Amino acid sequence: MPFASCPPARPPRHLLRHLSASTLLSLAAAAQAADPATFKIAYIDPLSGPFANVGELMLLHTQYAVDEINAKGGVLKPGPQGVKLQLLQFDSKLSAQESLSALQAAIDQGARAIITGGSGSSVVSALVQAAAKHNERNPDRAVLVLNHSSIDPDLTGKSCNFWHFQFEANTAMKMKAIANTIKKQPSIQKVYLLNQDYAHGKQWARYGQELVGLARPDIQFVGDTLHPIGRVKDFSPYVAKIKASGADSVITGNWGQDMTLLLKAAGDAGYKLRYFNHSAGSVPGTVLAVSQAKMGELTWVAEWHPGQADSARVDALAKAYRARTGKDFLAPRIDMTPRFLAAAIQKAQSLEARQIARALEDLSLDTVVGPVRMRGEDHQALLPQVVNTIAPVDGKAVKLGWEGTNYGFRTDALYSGNELAQGTECRMARPQ
Fold this sequence. Notes:
Blueprint: H1 13-16, H2 21-33, E1 38-45, H3 52-71, E2 84-91, H4 96-108, E3 111-116, H5 121-137, E4 144-147, E5 164-166, H6 171-182, E6 190-196, H7 199-215, E7 220-227, H8 236-245, E8 249-251, H9 257-268, E9 274-276, H10 286-293, E10 297-302, H11 312-325, H12 332-348, H13 353-360, E11 364-367, E12 370-375, E13 380-382, E14 385-392, E15 407-415, H14 417-420
Parallel strand pairs: 1-2, 1-3, 3-4, 4-5, 6-7, 6-8, 8-9, 9-10
Antiparallel strand pairs: 10-14, 11-12, 12-13, 14-15
Helix pairs in contact: 3-12, 4-5, 6-7, 9-10, 12-13
């Protein structure tokens, strides 16, 4: 059973008459937040709109890990009673303003850690800045921002922040893995850059041109186009533009429906392309879209892919996850994010955010994808990456069909976190 918490002492009745309604509400919220039986985590990511399926996937992965931690007694063990993790849910609506409102609501409800990443790097950056300001003014109610999917290198580079931790390989790390793979494929000659018009899309294009160009100086970049994120319903005009350029490949940071609709448009046009992407295969519907297009190859990079050889620990987790949720398991990094948090709380023997942050620095865990270290100097996780391609099942390289299709994942290359690690511009300012 959870700890039984004592009710807070009430101010004398004659003082209550002089307190404003807002002050009374603040006192009530503080009393609620002080419950020692739980450590509250706020999930802030899209749960409505064009990317709701992505947000729901991330939420389910997070909730599964939290439930497992609680089933094993929670955190701060051994002790008379473990402290349980409680997951609060907020819809970011893919908006920085909505996310900031959710952050304030989460803090008011007692959250001391935020798990986010599926709303894009600009949203995560806004959350980190707001959390840092809040923490400076309210050190006794500080919050951490744990980022599982937004991969802007600036978040652990020149804009690094003590309160932010990134559990996904960043854009530069992923593009380095892709560039190493393209280097061995001389058939790739002409590349088009098509990306969503926001921070991540622009960076995927920039790092693509820089790192792929460095690996293959002979490659021609024949076009560079940005499009509105989540608002294009028909990618046919973009496909026509790519075709006119003579491109054989596309470097695209698109995800969710922006990726599946691009695949559909190219398939409808009968245009065979190679696509190089960061995480498309871990989003529901992508494998189905590739199989329906019946042409083209989508190569992406992640910490694991379904059907990967020598991944018994992930396979066991995926099997247990499906048995409990009825859904496919796709993203070990999201599952490991609350597990890192729990391990840091245990190491710090504290529920105070600053102490947890210090415990997270240089913390290493033996995860289902192997050893992962949270680099202390910039709060960038160093985790393995596998370059893989969605391809037809052949019984050899691809043995497992996915999403009810005869398409699965073919491993192209494996890299350790240390092999892909980049230098950093981070100059971390740490609170006293």
